[in-house]
Amino acid sequence: MRGTMPATDSSSSSSPAAAPLSSIGRSIRSLRRDQNQIHSFPPPPDATDAFQRRAAQLLADLPAADDVLSLAWTRRLLESFLLCLEEFRALLFGSGDSPAARPPLDRLVADFSDRAVKALDLCNAVRDGLDLVRQWRKHLAIAAAVLASSSDSSSPLGEAQIRRARKALTDLTILMLDDRDGGGVVGQRNRSFGRANEKPPRHHRRSSSGGSSGSGSGSHLRSLSWSVSRAWSAARQLQAIGGGLPVPRPHDNAATGGLASAVYTMGAVLFIVAFALVAAIPCQDRGLHAHFSVIRNLPCSAPITTLYERILDESKKKDRKNSCGLLKEIHQIELCSRHLMEITDAADFPLREDKDAVLREAAQDLVHLCESIKEGLDPLERQVREMFHRIVRTRTEILDCLSKPHGTG
Question: Which segments carry the region annotation Disordered (predicted)?
């Protein structure tokens, strides 16, 4: 069971005050039936075509290659996904006079629903990964604050300041290496979006090392809901989401007014967004080995293929192969911390003027990076949370519709 309360939509209807209660009841039942029913009759072909073109355009309009997998780019990607999902819901759950027999649409949307479950686990894992990046940023901010604290001073940086900054950077490096080797806190602390306000059981409130289970640093960060097991794999989830998407057949599209292709498009969009999130953010077993290809006769084929290949190219770069995540800001953390460690490694005291100037400049770059990460992480997490709940709502509507016997409202 997932500790998640599916979102619900409220609606209201008006009727004459003198209308009998039985008429009001029938009106409400009819309204609910219309809102939660997959099209009894095929929608107009231009509606399904418009959805597919819209999805393709949203993906094609993402920023250029230089910004791929940055915080800003990832937020734009999630915005595009949320828009696609809402338009997909509007297309799928239209009004109809009666819930007629639904094959092959029932089979296709049931398949999409199963794949969506895997995306929910990924959302939880990505949220944990964002928390991990926050921990990294805290260590980076300590080093930045120490080195930038005397930026207006005429005296050079002292040995105590350098040592404190190096201690923070060393702790950061250990944490990042720990995650890179698969033994970090990502595999230990997975929470569900639906349990954000619940208190952990009494026996989970303290970690085995005596630290608080929900705060602290490094190994003291523990799970509150254990929504993902230690054997859970982001790579396997990706394969489950994108592997063997049901290819829409001509007679399927003819029977559904093009909805078969729309469901396929939404499944492909779901995969590429999940793939990008796993690539960007630290996740448990975040290998990018899931093979994926889309059929060529759909509007979304080109932009999805371009995104998939672009992300793979990023993962193959020599300086990114062993990274904790392909998020641009994570790469900048690695570069900045490495650069500062090299500068301070052979520092002689008192510092020469030129060495002091280099350190102060590097410290300012560090300050700007910390600010950028701080400003971008919270909005991105809110979008991942929204993605989670929108998928839950859509899946609940699909299951509710498919569970109704044919011929009932």
Answer: 1-23, 183-221
